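Consortium newsletter contribution from the modelling node. Members have asked for a concrete example of what our holo predictions look like. Here is one, prepared for the zinc ion complex that several groups have been discussing at recent meetings.
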Amino acid sequence: MDQIKTGKFIAEMRKEQNLTQRQLADLLSISDKTVSKWECGKGMPDVSLMLPLCEILHITVNDLLTGKRVFENEYQNKAEENMMNLLKENSENKKKTALSVICGFITIIAVISLIIIASLIDMPTAARVAIIILAIITGISGIAVTVLLDIEGGYYECPYCKSLFVPTVGEYVKGYHTLTKRRLTCHKCGKTGMCRRRIVRK
Ligand SMILES: [Zn+2]
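And here is the predicted structure:
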């Protein structure tokens, strides 16, 4: 709390309301010397006077104590918070996309190993069938996890309206795709086209 800053602020706000020190003092039923003292930074308004004073000056107690209007600051904090969330989301998306690649890779290796084991090693037929079934289950669940991570880890950008959207699993699986683009229907404008994959949102 900076008394001098608060004092200057009180004077500034008082003038904005076209009030003299005397008029402000009268409104608060105090002496104009007290108002003068505040404005020179030689004392703070009594707690019981803060609310009525703020009401007269059209400011908040927070403004009074800070010595300036705080809403601009709040706006900035909000903007920073939004920026932080975006950065966090982007880094999470990068992680999910990397995990998706790793998961896909592990699935392929696991399935191939199981098939090699089932075909090369001598074992009873029942065991061979069991291993092939295990390979199929591993393959399906591995692909499912890979796809989910890939969907969650980014957006697709509509080539027409440039809006970003996350496709549903159904849309994702059905869509013809290249490495960087996928044929999808935009959630915003409804047009279908080759949408580019975006990991981060700008
Ligand atoms: Zn669109």
